[in-house]
UniProtKB/TrEMBL annotation, chain A:
Pfam families: Proton_antipo_M (PF00361), Proton_antipo_N (PF00662). The chain crosses the membrane at residues 6-24, 31-51, 92-112, 124-142, 148-168, 180-199, 228-249, 270-292, 304-322, 329-352, 372-392, 412-431, 446-467, 488-509, 529-549, 634-651. It is found in: Endomembrane system; Membrane. It is a multi-pass membrane protein. It comes from the Bacteria. The gene is nuoL. This is NADH-quinone oxidoreductase subunit L.
TrEMBL record, chain B:
It is a multi-pass membrane protein. It comes from Xylanibacter caecicola. NDH-1 is composed of 14 different subunits. Subunits NuoA, H, J, K, L, M, N constitute the membrane sector of the complex. HAMAP family: NDH1_NuoN_1. This is NADH-quinone oxidoreductase subunit N. Residues 124-415 form the NADH:quinone oxidoreductase/Mrp antiporter transmembrane domain. It catalyses: a quinone + NADH + 5 H(+)(in) = a quinol + NAD(+) + 4 H(+)(out).
């Protein structure tokens, strides 16, 4: 099979970005949107075709899908270490192609309705194309350096899209915050990459197939023994943890999560695409990509991933229970769910053989599976939220309530996604979350029970949200003034498609046949005990949420609110994390570090350079006479210069 | 003698053919008012010449070692032919004026014959052929400078050029005669062998080498052989200045490197020391002059002197990487400098011949596109990423630093500091165009399609040569 057409998947959105970016303003909204959507449609078809060919081509002799590199050219040769650009196809990158192109296409279609008549419509589509190109490039990267390039590009496009409504102060602040926080994390990523590259003489991902492991032996290029031993010892774990910090920034892990809730200032379809389905899972993808190295060299350090993940999952779920802005609830729910994926990767245990029997590396498959299902139902939730905001012109739950009568399609699809994220069978979320929790139990029962508890919280806050929007107290005054209406077809069709995927993809396909840690075919089977437990807990949580939030009057909720005002306030304020950051940056860093440095810069550094510049200027002025314009002088200087050079050479 | 050997000299033979065709075409159509086909014809011929040089890659030796060419020399010939093509495309605007149109053919013939001379110079295997090539490039160049002979400036510039050129040729021949006196041959290979064997008086050889160097240093305009540069660049017609600053300089730099590395290899220690001195002087002094310069062509003259210093850094490396870096630097320098000169030229045409920096005040408001292209070119010259100039500087510095001695590092460091200064004065123009305002800003004008084409080629080069590694690889493969 020839995969040479795959470059089109990257090229088309890039071209679309250029065309729309340069000529978009001369087009009508409709034409610009059509160009963007058509090109993305072709990309989607190509991605599906690639996936079809890739997975039907069959497994190799060792039972795994072949890792293909249709393109790889050296961009910058630097001796032993090269910067390459290319395309890598393996199960996870092909799976990501599907996720990204599907969600992106849905968002492209949806935005026709949602962004209708917005100023800057063409710019919006141009940025969407840029983002899609970067994200696709990230997942098909053949080496960690290329991944980093596209990693930064998605950061930039996220920045541009969060700040899409740039006249609004909040949007500008949010985009800056997102960019600075993720950039700060990326600094560690870069250091990790450089450490890794320096010691292993390679940026390439090709270790995945043929890693040779010995204790401190040289796995990569055995020329430089000192470097190789260092790499096998502490360098690779350190580099991996540094890279994880970068991934934690992008994937909004505590304490680097602070940018994601604010990023909701961007248009809602953007939140669905970037801040729920694709970009924020880049950190998870990165760990999955480096997984063979983690397992081989840094099994102990994996526990860092677990702890960060567990805490983030809990923290975000707790905050989500108290938010009133529906997009913020979804944002914290996203953070919590990504943390689930992180935990799932972290709980994998080392050991190559006998993987399939003892569930040791089940987490890898579970994480990717959850990434896939979560992308679909979370995108559906966000797009649904977009429809609601479109209808009531507010993000606050107080403006909603009782919307089920007005918006039947949105209501049903939202409910389906809520059931999926809560882990109710037969929706997709049940299957993937169940695998994650099974993997956690295999790692440690404590982690397993904690994650089960967080899953219960998930069900609770999602149904709190659901009842708050569609049932509960209706804001009749507002709705009389402006009756909510169902969204147009361009917006509801993506919802329907995504919810159909959510209903079916859990049981219709065996995800383990496509992606698994060892690459072998893995039959997913439900662990009865875990499945029943988590189901029961989810149902209880939903029942609790129903009891508290469904009615017109909500005595229990009001009572709880009165009883624990401080706790509610703290959760509503996200446990004051933003305030902590403000304190650390403004009070400590700015005052103690930045102010003295600024003084030094202004007086010592500037002074030195001002002096040098003044000297150069004066030097130029005083030399002017030398260039006299008299040819005889020139000849004299010429000859004396030549003679002087000769003398100097003879003397030294 | 076997005359079929001429056929081995493909780039030179085709260039000769181009020259004859242009001459005949000019002769036949002389006196006609409108010769709209003339410039396209010459450009097409030049394009063919570029392709011929591009295809020709083998090392050839003819006439008993008089004519020697290497793959790297062929690459350089291709680059120079391409640069000449840009000059020819861009010259049309200037040559369509009533007071210049009758000289159109003359200009083309002179340009092609200088290029022929440079090609001969680059593929010489003997000092005499080298000298003939040099003069073949030099004498028509003086005519080019004097093309606008009824303008006082142009005539003065040509006089200064030819006088100093004669002087430098004299000094150079003197040096070559020293060399002949001590080793008894002028074939490059033999000189190298005899020098390595220790034949002849070392003092005489060094003196010969320095004097020889001063002759080429004059062409490249290295300090202290640079004095003619400012006056000549300022007085010559702008298109000729552009040609002089890139093509002539590139050819001479390449030849100098080849000869230093090949012929004077036994004296490497001496000429590296000499280069350290000359490079530091060239870059620093030219920068100091440029800071205070407000006449744009004169300014570009000093800029080109300092760029020459950077080019010479590649020679310090004394390695294949150095050869690649030099050719690549020249290539990038050609596109960037030609872009600047195209803008200067088109502004001059619309401004009654004034090339003062003040004329550019408020240029961005009236001609944003040209101002933008000019900015890109200046950024490339200053070496700001991601433009090609940054990459070429990087490779040059790398080649020099790889030589490894403390002095080489020191020179690279001084050159790095000087890039900061150069950034300052390049930005002065940008500042004039974007920030300074003026009531007398140039009116908005449309440039003709030839200028547009030339600018498009140059801008594409500035933007792409850096990021497309294939360009560097192509050069590296040959050297």
């Amino acid at each position: 099979m020839d995969y040479s057409f795959v470059f089109l998947i990257l090229l088309l959105p890039a071209l679309t970005f250029v065309v729309l970016g340069l000529a978009g303003m001369k087009m009508s909204h409709k034409v610009a949107g059509l160009i963007g959507t058509t090109s993305l449609g072709i990309v989607t078809v190509l991605s599906y075709y690639t996936a079809f060919c890739y997975f039907t081509a069959g497994r190799g002799a060792d039972g795994t899908f072949a890792t293909l590199v249709p393109y790889n050219f050296t961009w910058l040769p630097l001796g032993a270490l090269n910067f390459d650009l290319g395309i890598l196809l393996d199960p996870i990158s092909v799976m990501m192609l599907i996720v990204i192109s599907t969600v992106s296409l849905m968002v492209h279609i949806y935005s026709f309705g949602y962004m209708h008549g917005e100023k800057g419509f063409q710019r919006y589509y141009a940025f969407l194309s840029l983002f899609t190109m970067s994200m696709l490039g990230l997942v098909v990267a053949t080496n960690i350096f290329q991944m980093y390039l596209f990693w930064e590009l998605v950061g930039v496009s996220s920045y541009l899209l969060i700040g899409f409504y740039y006249p609004l102060h909040a949007a500008v602040a949010a985009s800056k915050k997102a960019f600075i926080v993720t950039r700060f994390a990326d600094m560690f990523f870069l250091i990790g990459i450089l450490l890794f590259g320096y010691y292993t003489n390679s940026f390439s991902f090709s270790f995945a197939g043929d890693i040779v492991m010995g204790n401190g032996a040289a796995p990569f290029i055995p020329v430089d023994v000192v470097k190789a031993v260092a790499a096998g010892g502490f360098i690779i774990p350190t580099a991996l943890v540094l890279m994880f910090i970068g991934g934690a920034g992008k994937s909004a892990m505590f304490p680097l999560h602070i940018w994601l809730p604010d990023a909701m200032e961007g248009p809602t379809p953007v939140s669905a695409l970037i801040h729920a389905a694709t970009m924020v899972v880049a950190g998870v993808f990165q760990i999955a990509r480096m997984f063979p190295l983690w397992i081989e060299y840094a099994p102990e350090q994996m526990s860092i991933v677990v702890y960060v993940g567990v805490f983030t999952a809990f923290y975000a779920a707790a905050v989500a229970c108290a938010q009133s802005d529906i997009k913020r609830v979804l944002a914290f729910s996203t953070i919590s769910q990504i943390a689930f994926m992180m935990v799932a990767l972290g709980v994998c245990l080392p050991g190559h053989e006998a993987v399939l029997d003892n569930h040791a590396q089940l987490g890898y498959m579970a994480s990717m599976f959850h990434l896939f299902t979560h992308a679909m139902f979370k995108a559906c939730l966000f797009l649904g939220a977009g429809c609601i905001i479109h209808a009531v012109h507010s993000n606050e739950m107080s403006a909603m309530g009782g919307l089920r009568k007005y918006m039947p399609v949105t209501h049903i699809t939202f409910l389906i996604s809520c059931l999926a994220i809560s882990g109710i069978p037969p929706f997709s979320g049940f299957f993937s979350k169940d695998e994650i929790i099974t993997a956690c139990f295999a790692y440690s029962p404590v982690v397993g029970w904690i994650m089960t508890g967080i899953a219960a919280m998930t069900a609770f806050y999602m149904f709190r949200l659901y009842y708050g929007i569609f049932w509960g107290t209706e804001n009749k005054e507002l709705h009389a003034h402006h009756t909510p209406h169902e969204a147009p077809l361009t917006m509801t069709v993506p919802l329907i498609i995504l919810s159909v995927i959510t209903i079916t993809c859990g049981w219709a396909v065996n995800f383990g046949s496509f992606v698994s840690a060892s690459g072998q075919d893995y039959q997913i089977h439900l662990d009865t005990q875990v499945a029943v437990t988590s189901c029961v807990i989810a149902v209880i949580s939903i029942a609790l949420a129903t009891y508290i939030y469904k009615g017109e009057k909500q005595p229990v909720a009001d009572m709880l609110y009165r009883r624990f005002p401080k706790l509610h306030r703290a959760a509503y304020k996200r446990f004051y994390m933003d305030e902590v950051y403000m304190f650390v940056t403004h009070k400590i860093i700015f005052r103690l570090v930045s102010t003295p440095i600024a003084w030094f810069d202004r007086h010592v550094v500037d002074g030195t350079f001002d002096f040098l510049a003044w000297g150069a200027n004066e030097g130029g002025e005083s030399m002017r006479g030398w260039q006299s314009g008299d040819v005889r002088h020139y000849a004299v200087w010429f000859l004396s210069g030549a003679v002087a050079l000769t003398l100097v050479l003879l003397c030294i | 003698m076997n005359y079929s050997q001429f056929l081995n000299m493909i780039p030179e033979a085709t260039l000769m053919a181009v020259l004859v065709i242009v001459f005949v075409a000019d002769f036949v159509s002389a006196g006609r008012k409108e010769r709209r086909w003339f410039n396209p014809l010459v450009c097409l011929l030049m394009l063919a010449q570029v392709l011929v040089s591009f295809v020709q890659t083998d090392a050839v030796s003819a006439f008993g070692g008089m004519y020697v060419t290497s793959p790297s020399a062929n690459v350089m010939k291709t680059i120079l032919a391409a640069g000449t093509l840009i000059v020819l495309i861009q010259s049309r605007n200037w040559l369509s004026r009533p007071d210049t149109s009758f000289k159109e053919g003359e200009f083309y013939e002179l340009v092609v014959s200088t290029l022929l001379g440079m090609n001969m110079m680059m593929s010489a295997g003997h000092f005499l052929l080298f000298f003939i090539g040099l003069e073949m490039a030099s004498v028509p160049m003086a005519c080019l400078v004097a093309l606008d002979k009824y303008r006082h400036h142009s005539a003065e510039a040509a006089a200064k050029f030819i006088l100093t050129a004669t002087f430098s040729s004299g000094v150079m021949l003197y040096g070559i005669s020293f060399l002949y006196g001590s080793v008894g041959t002028l074939y490059f290979d033999d000189v190298a062998k005899l020098l390595a064997a220790g034949t002849g008086n070392l003092t005489m050889c060094i003196m010969g080498m320095v004097f020889f160097f001063s002759g080429l240093g004059f062409k490249i305009s290295l300090v202290p052989f640079h004095f003619w540069t400012a006056d000549t660049y300022q007085g010559a017609p702008t298109t000729v200045t552009g040609y002089l600053s890139v093509i002539s300089k590139g050819a001479a730099a390449f030849t100098l490197m080849a000869i230093l590395m090949k012929v004077f290899a036994p004296l490497t220690e001496y000429w590296t020391n000499m280069l350290y001195i000359v490079i530091v002087l060239s870059i620093t002094i030219a920068n100091l002059f440029a800071i205070r310069q407000s006449e744009l062509k004169r300014f570009m003259a000093f800029s080109s002197i300092s760029q020459a210093g950077y080019i010479m850094l590649a020679v310090i490396g004394n390695s294949a990487a150095g050869v690649t870096a030099l050719s690549y630097y020249v290539l990038v320098y050609v596109v960037a400098n030609m872009a600047v000169f195209s803008v200067i030229s088109v502004v001059e045409e619309n401004n009654g011949g004034v090339t003062d920096m003040d004329a550019y005040n408020g240029f961005y408001r009236t001609n944003p596109k040209l101002a933008f292209l000019m900015t890109l070119a200046l950024f490339s010259l200053a070496g700001i990423p991601p433009f090609a100039g940054m990459f070429s500087k990087f490779f040059i510095f790398m080649a020099a630093a790889q030589q490894g001695s403390a002095a080489a590092y020191a020179v690279v460091f001084i050159a790095l500091i000087n890039t900061v200064i150069s950034l300052y004065y390049y930005l002065l123009i940008v500042k004039a165009m974007y920030i300074k305002d003026s009531d007398k800003a140039l009116p908005t004008f449309k440039s003709d399609c030839n200028t547009k084409l030339a600018l498009a080629i140059c801008t594409a080069g500035i933007a792409l040569f850096g990021v497309c590694s294939c360009v560097y690889d192509w050069i590296a493969m040959a050297s």
